[in-house]
Amino acid sequence: MVKEERRLDSLKRAHDPTSGDAARRESVRIEDYIELIHELINEYGQASPGEVAEHLHVSKPTVSKMLQRLDLAGLVVYERYSREVTLTDGGLSLATMLRHRHSVISDFLKHLGIDEEIIHADTEGIEHHLHPDTVEILSDLADFISSNPDWWDKFKLS
Predict the structure, then answer these.
(1) What's residue 18's pLDDT?
(2) Reported pTM
(3) Class of the 2-87 domain?
(4) Alpha-carbon distance values, 34 to 1, 19, 26, 81, 98 (Å)
């Protein structure tokens, strides 16, 4: 009964507009923008607001508003009506952490034998919600599995 009550409390808190989860959802949006800008720069050498809008399936005015906020926060360099957005050192640091977290989760799911398409969807779904300590434990476990394939093969058979 105690576990059920905790789960109910958790569900209630997740939907309470005063619980801080609204801020967490906003943080997820910010992370998505930073992660995408970083990936676009890595892939194409630059990131344009139009490309950001296309990849996030949002309107260009929505992107413009968010980029202005990210600029004020010191994460990107963006001027209204500009064709390019760049990451500041702070934005690049955040993007590097996000890339690490994404890789850790993806690698761990690969060890579980999950299909590649499912891995991408699951990683995008959970990466913003794990505590950094949890990510590092998953990283350690994935490293252990890689270093001890016999152990992992025995585990999977049981």
Answers:
(1) 67
(2) 0.79
(3) mainly alpha
(4) 42, 25, 12, 19, 9
CA distance 27 to 128: 8
Sequence ranges of the chain with CATH classification 1.10.60.10: 92-157
Average pLDDT over the chain, rounded to an integer: 87
Q: 76 - beta bridge partners?
A: 87
**Backbone phi and psi for residue 131, each to the nearest 5 degrees, phi listed first:** -65, 145
Residue 103 has a CB neighbour count (10 Å cut-off) of 15
pLDDT in tens, 75-125: 999 988 888 999 999 999 999 999 999 999 999 999 888 999 999 999 988
Classify residue 114 as left (phi > 0), alpha (psi -120 to 50) or beta: beta
The CATH number of the structural domain formed by 92-157 is 1.10.60.10
d(CA 79, CA 84): 8
